[in-house]
Amino acid sequence: MLEVDNLAKRYGDVLALKDLTVRVEEGQCLVLLGRNGAGKTTALRCMGGVLLPTAGTVKVDGIDAAEDPAAVRARIGLMPEVPGLYERMSARAYLDHFGAIYDIEPGLRRRRISELLETFELADAGDRWLGTFSKGMRQKVALIRATLHRPRLVLADEPTSALDPDSARRAWDYLRDLQSEGCALVICTHSMEEAEHLAAPAKSGEFAGSPGAIGIMSAGRALAIGNLSKLRRLSGLKTRKQVRQLPTLQDVYLAIVGSHHGLAETRSAGDAAAGAAQRFGGPGGPSRRNGWPDEERIVNV
To answer: pLDDT of 252-293, one tens digit each?
Structure first.
């Protein structure tokens, strides 16, 4: 589904992303964790075609994003951290507009919009201008927009950061439902609970049992990628025998990042250290106006 090989992005003399190699198959989820500036968002934007990578390749369904970006975009649902919404449109009209851009048949898109507004408890607000929406409500609309066309791959940057716990759980369940239908997910987050929930194997559908993975990033490098059991082993932490409790994901994250404390947060283009590239499920250029319907105007790259 998603194949990323030796992906790198440089801004002048700063390497924001170095040698990322990863695989995400149908029905799988990769969650990226890391401090601010670790390279998570840069990686996601390169995967989604918002940024041109300095080096490396991205393929979706075997299609090279550099050779046929339009075909790749049609298979992707991209949700940026800060959704740019058209404030003088109602939520329903806004989603209908993007449904038409995605070439969804009118009757089908109206049904999907109504169902998803209901799912995210926005049905009563569907005819209000988006400019009147709270931050959390805007984030829900952005998630609906990114998935309205039933993409093969969803790339989401902190999709629940503005949501209350109940709404966040609803969003997680929705993403897991998409995953059970074969959609691949790549999620950036700072929430350890969200990471554990989304990276757990799917429990239902054709892809039940498909393994998920968590990638821990720092200074533009992937320090480790794997399921929680693998990350516990890599962290070197031991079971807390006095309470017979396994190390939490937060314990593991801090241990792995702490063991690489020598990595500078400002990356030099001349840095010769090898990137800690890992594979999941298998073996500086200028920003690009990429044809995403709304990212052209709203994403600062």
So the answer is: 999 999 887 666 444 544 443 344 444 444 444 444 444 444
Q: With the CA atoms of 181, 186, 188 and 194 taken in that order, what torsion angle do they form, in degrees rounded to the nearest 10?
A: 30
Query: What pLDDT, on the 0 to 100 scale, is given for residue 63?
Result: 94
Q: Which residues pair with 184 in a beta bridge?
A: 153
Give me the percent of the chain exceeding a pLDDT of 90.
70
Residues whose CB is less than 8 angstroms from the CB of residue 76 and which lie 6 or more positions away in sequence, other chains included: 48, 49, 60, 151, 152, 153, 154, 155
Residue 21 located in a structural domain: yes
pTM (two decimals): 0.82
Range of the domain at 272: 2-80+151-298
| Amino acid, single-letter form, for residue 262 | G
Number of domains in the chain: 1
Closest CA to 102 of 68, 127, 138, 77: 77
CATH number of 69's domain: 3.40.50.300
Q: Is 188:222 a contact under the CB 8 Å cutoff?
A: no
